[in-house]
Amino acid sequence: MDVFFSLLTNLLPLYILIGMGFVAARYLKVDRQSLASLAIFMFMPIVVFGFVVNLEFQPSYILLPIVIFVVSVITGVGFLALGKKVYGDNTANLMAMCCSMGNTGYFGLPLVFLLFNEQQTAIYIFMMLGGSVYEATYGYYLAARGAFDVKTSLKKLAKFPALYAITLGFIANGLGYKPPELFWTYWAYFKGAYVVLGMMIVGAALAGVQKLVIGPRFMALVFLGKFLAWPVLVYTFVLFDKAVLQWYPQDIHNLILIMSLVPPAANIAAFAAQMNMKPEKAATTILLSTIFALVYIPAMIWLLGIR
Hints:
Blueprint: H1 2-26, H2 32-53, H3 63-86, H4 91-100, H5 104-115, H6 118-144, H7 150-158, H8 161-175, H9 181-206, H10 216-245, H11 250-261, H12 267-274, H13 279-304
């Protein structure tokens, strides 16, 4: 239990940043979209490049984002089918989004900064590609109920700057390029700023909740999908690798498991508002699941023996 309370204490500052983002958006009228634009287009590419350029890449890493993509698709398809049996409207699409799209960037990346070293963080960033491709393809399809075709979805993916930062980082890595010391000095500043901005964006997104709309059945299904089905699928792959493939060490298994534990993506609230998919219910679900994660993540880290 000492490990659990230690992890809980380490997570609290991240939740304080979420609270600051909530206050900034609700009372200081800070625009969430402006914060997100800063994080996505300015801070994240520099942070990502710094990690990837120093990554000791192994061919086996290529499978990792594919695993994340496949798990996301299985969860999305499965819970969409389940949702259609329970609901007669686009609530099924919203539920499938909440189950299959995790907050791996704004929430997960600061958590990984806290628990893992730079090499491990670089692998996590590479794994995030699987979630990004999923959001830009089937995730957008769920959000728009088919309004986005594949071409439009791929165009949206092509505008994701971290994709180019990862590509540039791998090219520089392959050529043996080492950034100067001055780069690393400012890179550390950008990394810290991304943590602050990322968590504040979560809070700013939650500030859009004008009223709580709690649907017990909807909430139960989302928690079943995101906090049970997703981790079980990922843990199944970990067991398969340990027993059959034996490609990855324990630290990479831990990274995959951490990615499976994050709450639903904060961007879902924006998608729901844009597509008129019960935005209050979406925002309430994200709010309560993010609060739940404060206890759930340390408990699962302790239970799974992640170090």
